[in-house]
Amino acid sequence: MFARSALRSSLVPSSRLFSTSTPRQTKVAVLGAGGGIGQPLSLLLKTDPLVSSLSLYDIRGAPGVAADVSHVDTASEVKGYAADQLDQALDGVEVVVIPAGVPRKPGMTRDDLFNTNASIVRDLATAVGRVSPSAHILVISNPVNSTVPIVASTLSKLGVFDPTRVFGVTTLDVVRASRFLSMVTGTSPAECDVPVVGGHSGATIVPLLSQTDIGKSLVGKGETYDKLVNRIQFGGDEVVKAKDGAGSATLSMAYAGAKFANALLRGLSGEKGVVTPTFVKSPLFESQGVDFFSSLVELGTKGVEKIHPLGPLSPEEEKLMEACLPELKKNIEKGKAFVA
Ligand SMILES: NC(=O)C1=CN([C@@H]2O[C@H](COP(=O)(O)OP(=O)(O)OC[C@H]3O[C@@H](n4cnc5c(N)ncnc54)[C@H](O)[C@@H]3O)[C@@H](O)[C@H]2O)C=CC1
Ligand SMILES: O=C([O-])CC(=O)C(=O)O
């Protein structure tokens, strides 16, 4: 259903959802499975051959979603869990994806979601740390720049934080960058893998177009470049505005979440050279007080295998980084302070 072009580089290719090179299969949980992202994400995970078992949890609606998804004709087992069954849902899981929490409405920033989502994410991370402390946790709930430090600090308090196992899912920025660049240049998204680094909100989203064959000629070319960068940074707002109060990106996010989960599962299975951006505990800008950062990360049998350096930046990208770091630092500190 999904296979298309062959792997052209070590990067997770932009226009393909699933790739399976190895047979290892994994038990995966989705927390927030009844929601706008959770439902299509659960469906896509049901069709991922590297998933053997799906555990769907939400405070409302997960058993119904599980019954529905379970009829899809792939071999994985699906079970739904009600509000009071979180521990059962997490029993034995190796990968936990968290899209639980409220989405934005027009006029809101992602940071405006902090008050509601911080405690949801902290409580879910506490349960994962207690029931499945060696699980890999993929955080989708916003504000990602703060919710990932919340998960890390929560697990640290429990004495089970392992920086190779906690990921902020920034794949939607990569998916958007690929699609928007392809639209500007009249090329295929498959040729437009863009490393998007930094964080996941506005100015903290930094596309490194100078590092792409297709995009590098646009860098510094006035309005076309500026508009493209702005569209990648504020793609989420486009969807929030168009949905007009009914939420934010759900379908493209489910696609992006399934794509990142598949990349991780391939790495865990022993596939080499699986490299994609993700927001992790990172040494790259630690000296500047920014200890979580998204950059190209190699995924391996333990999770984070290698954090790649940023590589050469154009003067325009240096400026984007200058705007990114102070905001990202604030977002990270806010998350840590919430748990402390
Ligand atoms: N990382 C990214 O790129 C993106 C992140 N998001 C974020 O994902 C989150 C979810 O978005 P949607 O699915 O559209 O929202 P939604 O409101 O449609 O679904 C959220 C689900 O979470 C559930 N939930 C709430 N508290 C829970 C708890 N304690 N345990 C388990 N489930 C709980 C709700 O019952 C609901 O089913 C939002 O915070 C949104 O901002 C959205 C798009 C992209
Ligand atoms: O914009 C939002 O609130 C949801 C999100 O993170 C995105 O679409 O990138």
TrEMBL record:
Q: Which residues bind NAD(+)?
A: 32-38, 58, 117, 140-142, 253
Q: Which residues form the Lactate/malate dehydrogenase C-terminal domain?
A: 170-339
Extract the Pfam families matched here. Answer: Ldh_1_C, Ldh_1_N
Q: Name one GO molecular function term.
A: L-malate dehydrogenase (NAD+) activity
Q: Keywords, A to Z? A: NAD, Oxidoreductase, Tricarboxylic acid cycle
> Could you say which residues form the signal peptide?
none
Residues given in the record as substrate binding sites: 104, 110, 142, 176
Where's the active site on this chain?
200
* Known EC number: 1.1.1.37
Q: Which domain of life is it from?
A: Eukaryota
What are the residue boundaries of the Lactate/malate dehydrogenase N-terminal domain, all occurrences included? 26-168
* Example of a GO biological process term: tricarboxylic acid cycle
Q: What are the annotated GO cellular component locations?
A: mitochondrion
Question: What reaction is this protein's catalytic activity?
Answer: (S)-malate + NAD(+) = oxaloacetate + NADH + H(+)
The record, for InterPro entries, names:
L-lactate/malate_DH, Lactate/malate_DH_C, Lactate/malate_DH_N, Lactate_DH/Glyco_Ohase_4_C, Malate_DH_AS, Malate_DH_type1, NAD(P)-bd_dom_sf
Subunit and partners: Homodimer.
The UniProt entry's sequence similarity note says:
Belongs to the LDH/MDH superfamily. MDH type 1 family.
The identity of this protein, by name, is Malate dehydrogenase
